[in-house]
């Protein structure tokens, strides 16, 4: 069964707009990670946030983690057409342990 | 960054044949690798955890006799889909954990798309 559920399942925005997607999970975690997947390709690691962290930034990406609500959000600012991809959250119950993936959010950025 | 290579990237086979997919960590050692499968427009589902030098740990509902996993070295794990059938057609992705790495990050291969006719 999937640990994470993502919302929305699909998102369509104009270039330059911000994209926000959310992830909820059920059990306690050690860390939560966000990945991007272009169609038919492997996964690219975007960012890892540990359970004792609340917010993390990487370039145009901002991730928040609320362990009390068992949820996380990924914000992509000033989106570009190249950001078009599926984005997955994944949780690990222990560092370096197997990841359980959410359902993913398909993001389409229109030029 | 660390690189994980999967081979082949695409394979088409006839029903009833067996297909082997390789997952290699190119610049690091991995005592543990994970195998996932992904159906179109769906998420990744963990199939099994591959442990170097020991038996793989399979997730519930995954047939170990159908999906044979071998992790013979610190840089190579293989997944063999035995007696493949059309319902086994999927995207198979491996990931590896760097035993020398400081974080919990896993590195993913580019995936192998299996089509069973």
Describe the structure in your own words.
The complex is a heterodimer of chains A (111) and B (117). Chain A is globular and about 40 Å long. Chain A has 111 residues and is an all-beta fold. Chain A has strands spanning 5-7, 10-14, 19-24, 31-37, 43-50, 55-58, 61-66, 71-76, 85-92, 99-101, 105-110. In chain B, strands 2, 4, 5, 6, 9, 10 and 11 form a seven-stranded mixed sheet that branches. In chain B, strands 1-3-8-7 form a four-stranded antiparallel sheet, with no helix packed on it. In chain B, strand 4 (32-38) and strand 5 form a beta hairpin. Chain B is globular.
What is the element layout, followed by pairings?
The complex is a heterodimer of chains A (111) and B (117).
Chain A: E1 5-7, E2 10-14, E3 19-24, E4 31-37, E5 43-50, E6 55-58, E7 61-66, E8 71-76, E9 85-92, E10 99-101, E11 105-110
Parallel strand pairs in A: 2-11
Antiparallel strand pairs in A: 1-3, 3-8, 4-5, 4-9, 6-7, 7-8, 9-10, 9-11
Chain B: E1 4-7, E2 10-13, E3 19-25, E4 32-38, E5 44-51, E6 57-58, E7 67-73, E8 76-81, E9 90-97, E10 106-108, E11 112-116
Parallel strand pairs in B: 2-11
Antiparallel strand pairs in B: 1-3, 3-8, 4-5, 4-9, 5-6, 7-8, 9-10, 9-11
């Amino acid at each position: 069964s999937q640990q994470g559920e993502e919302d929305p399942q699909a998102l369509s925005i104009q270039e330059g707009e911000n994209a926000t997607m959310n992830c909820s999970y059920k059990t306690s975690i050690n860390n939560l990670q966000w990945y991007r997947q272009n169609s038919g390709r492997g996964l690219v690691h975007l960012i890892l946030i540990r359970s004792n962290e609340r917010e993390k930034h990487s370039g145009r990406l901002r991730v928040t983690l609320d362990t009390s609500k068992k949820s996380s959000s990924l914000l992509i600012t000033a989106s570009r057409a190249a950001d078009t991809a599926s984005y997955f959250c994944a949780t690990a119950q222990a560092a370096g342990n197997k990841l359980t993936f959410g359902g993913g959010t398909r993001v389409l950025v229109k030029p | 960054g660390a690189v994980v290579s999967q081979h082949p990237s695409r394979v088409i086979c006839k029903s009833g044949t067996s297909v082997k997919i390789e997952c290699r960590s190119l610049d690091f050692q991995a005592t543990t690798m994970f195998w996932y499968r992904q159906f179109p427009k769906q998420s990744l589902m963990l199939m099994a955890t591959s442990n170097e030098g020991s038996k793989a740990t399979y997730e519930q509902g995954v047939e170990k006799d159908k999906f044979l996993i071998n992790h013979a070295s610190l840089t190579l794990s293989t997944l063999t889909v035995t007696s493949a059938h059309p319902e086994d057609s999927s995207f198979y992705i491996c990931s590896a954990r760097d035993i020398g790495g400081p974080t919990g990050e896993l590195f993913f291969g580019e995936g192998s798309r299996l089509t069973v006719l």
